[in-house]
Structures are given as C-alpha cells and as structure tokens.
UniProtKB/TrEMBL annotation:
Keywords: Metal-binding. This is GTP cyclohydrolase 1 type 2 homolog. InterPro entries: DUF34/NIF3, DUF34/NIF3_bac, DUF34/NIF3_sf, N-reg_PII/ATP_PRibTrfase_C. Gene3D superfamilies: 3.30.70.120, NIF3 (NGG1p interacting factor 3)-like (3.40.1390.30). PANTHER family: GTP CYCLOHYDROLASE 1 TYPE 2 HOMOLOG, NGG1 INTERACTING FACTOR 3. It comes from Sphingobacterium griseoflavum. Pfam families: DUF34_NIF3 (PF01784). Belongs to the GTP cyclohydrolase I type 2/NIF3 family. The keyword Heme does not apply.
Length: 365
C-alpha cells in the first residue's frame, strides 16, 4: 500500500494537530505516495533499529519518538541523528513518528499504562481546552433535517459518548435580496420573512473545514447566516495523562510490588509512602511532572510518571506518592499499542515489533 494510507489512518486516531509545539511527529523521511510492504515498530529510531529494518526487509519504521526534533542544518553523519536519516534515505526506508499526538489522545500512551494496571473507569487527567468550537446556523424549516444531518456526517454534534447532538430554536429571519443576488426565496428589492430554525452544534476545531463545507453544500441559501464561536470547554478525549481506580485498594508497599510486576520494571524511585491505602492512581507516560497538581486535585493517592528531578520529589509534600518508573519503561507498551492499532486496520500489511531494546539507561545491581 501507499505510505499515506497508513499515515492517514494513524492521524485519524492521533491527529498531528494534537502534538505539542516542540514536537516533530509525522512523516520525517519518505514520500506519501511511496509504496510500503512491511513495517517495523519501535519506541526509538536508532541506528540498530534501522539496521534491523534493513535486515528484515522493512520499508518503513513507525516509532514513538521522532529521530529529528530540531531542524537539521547539515547531513554529514557526525551524529546518530544525521547517520540514521542519511542511511534511511539511502536504503529507501521511510521514517514516521507518532509522539505527543499519541500521548494526547484517550486510548493512547497513558491509557495503555492504565490498562496494564487494570484501572477502572479511567479518564484523561488534564483534558485540553481551546479545541472545541460551536456553530450556529440559521436554516429555513424546509431544509433543517438536511443541513443538520450534513453537519453530523461531517463530524459535528459529538459530545463524549453521544453523537448527533444539537440544539434547535424556532424563529424567523428577514432579508431583502439586492440587485445581483440569486435568492432561493423571495424577490429582488422586497423584504422577505422566512420561518427558520437556529441549529447549534459543537465540533472539534480540526474538523472545521469539513463541517463548514457540509453546511454550505446542504444549505439552500446563497448567503448562509451563521456564527462560529471558540469554546473554553475541555475536550475530554484529548489531553495529558490518565487517572482511574484500582479494583481493590492496596497498601503502598503492596502497590509498588504490583506496579513493578505489571509494568515489568527494574526499579522504582518514589517518595515516602503514606499511611493510607492506594486506591486512586494517576499516570503519565514519559516526562509528566507538570501534571502533579492535577493528580493531587483529582484525588490521586499516587502519581506514576518519569524523568523526575531531585527537587521535584519534594512537591509531593506528603499529599501524594510520586513514583518515577523511567522514561523508556513508562512508554515501552506503546509499541504493543501501535501494533494492535495497525493490525486491526491493515490485516494484510506485515508489521513487526523491534527486537532491539533502545533504552539508553542501564541498571547495575
């Protein structure tokens, strides 16, 4: 198949618009129209992973972390980033990264950790705001159903576990067609009064073009009266981290042992255990210290993440347990997640998990 068939599907699940500003997710090496036959999934795109892809006949590597974060000014092979990019181009291997956009969707990286820990009723820890808009469009009664259905089909009207959501207000509109107009209703120079319905729907901002085009195509008027309003409401399915409840509360020591077993950990760095059971658990794959206050406000007994600095552990203040499990360890199951996502959609596309452990951190015991 073409690269774009795979990437367009992945970007339906984790839109590039949801990546953080510092990130470089997406197609890094390769052309969307290039053919691919076999893919390799990895957390990192290292030289060893690239060699593995060459040996196994893979023509695309799908990694969580982008090999290129910042712009390359030279390609001289002086560091591993330049060498990987040059070798990938030479061997016609595409490089694709699905990073913070996968972190920021429900069902993504943090959700996978919650699933591994068997957390019940888990949800996004910090939903993102500023990603929703509301459309209000004024439609003649004869076309209300047609316009409303067109908006729904374009992705408007979905709220949580509900779709086809709208609010409809009955009234009337007035207008006077001027010379040059081609009115669907009324005559040039005469004021017209038409029974209309104000249809209001919410939609993700990334779907705005499709929603507005659907509105214009379905609406009978030459000039469509409508309002678009940006909302501060959080988009619950998009954001950072996850929080949920253990099926059965555990003492701190027992939970750390459970955590170590479930996530296959070598070591856990943690703050002082509290004299109460662990019941509510907050998690964030990768570096998540910025979510600590949300974890506290959400009533979490423990916050599991990575890349904590020494002084940041003091921020627990005996209100919560901080557990740093390591960056690689917190994201290792992302490979399994991507394998499942791709195989469910493309049953005939050969996709493999890397056999290379790319964790640059080793433990001596």
């Amino acid at each position: 198949m073409k690269i774009k068939e795979l990437t367009q599907y992945l970007e339906q699940i984790a839109p590039l618009a949801y990546q953080e500003s510092y990130d470089n997710a997406g197609l890094i090496v390769g052309h969307p129209d290039d053919d691919i036959h076999k893919g390799l999934i990895s957390l990192d795109c290292t030289e060893d992973v690239l060699d593995e892809a060459i040996d196994k006949g893979c023509d695309i590597i799908i990694s969580h972390h982008p090999i290129v974060f910042k712009g390359l000014t030279k390609l001289n092979g002086k560091n591993y980033v330049e060498r990987v990019v040059m070798k990938a181009i030479k061997n016609q291997i595409a490089l694709y990264a699905i990073h913070t956009n996968l972190d920021n969707v429900f069902g993504g990286v943090s959700s996978k950790i919650a699933e591994k820990l068997e957390l019940a009723s888990y949800a996004t820890l910090r939903p993102k705001t500023g990603l929703l808009k509301k459309l209000a469009v004024f439609v003649p009664r004869t076309h209300v159903d047609t316009v409303r259905e067109a908006l729904f089909s374009a992705g408007a009207g979905a709220i949580g576990n509900y779709d086809q959501c709208s609010y409809n207000t009955v009234g009337y509109g007035t207008f006077r067609p001027l010379p040059g107009a081609e009115p669907a209703v009324g005559d040039i120079g005469l004021q017209e009064r038409v029974e209309e319905t104000k249809v209001e729907v919410i939609y993700p901002a990334i779907k705005e073009r499709a929603v507005l085009l659907a509105m214009y195509h379905a609406h009978p008027y030459e000039e469509v009266a409508h309002d678009v309003v940006s909302l501060a409401n959080p988009l619950l399915a998009v954001g950072s981290g996850a929080i949920g409840n253990l099926p059965t509360p555990m003492r701190g020591e027992a939970f750390l042992a459970y955590l170590k077993e479930k996530l296959q950990l070598n070591v856990i760095r943690h703050t002082r255990l509290l004299d109460k059971p662990v019941s509510r658990v907050a998690v964030c794959g990768g570096a998540g210290s910025f979510l600590l206050q949300e974890a506290k406000r959400s009533g979490a007994d423990i916050f599991i993440s990575a890349d904590y600095k020494y002084h940041e552990f003091f921020d627990a203040e005996d209100e919560i347990i901080i557990a740093d499990i390591g960056h690689y360890e917190s994201e290792q199951f992302t490979q399994e997640l991507l394998l499942d996502i791709i195989r469910k959609k493309f049953a005939n596309f050969a996709v493999l998990l890397t056999e290379i452990e790319t964790n640059p951190i080793k433990y001596y015991s």
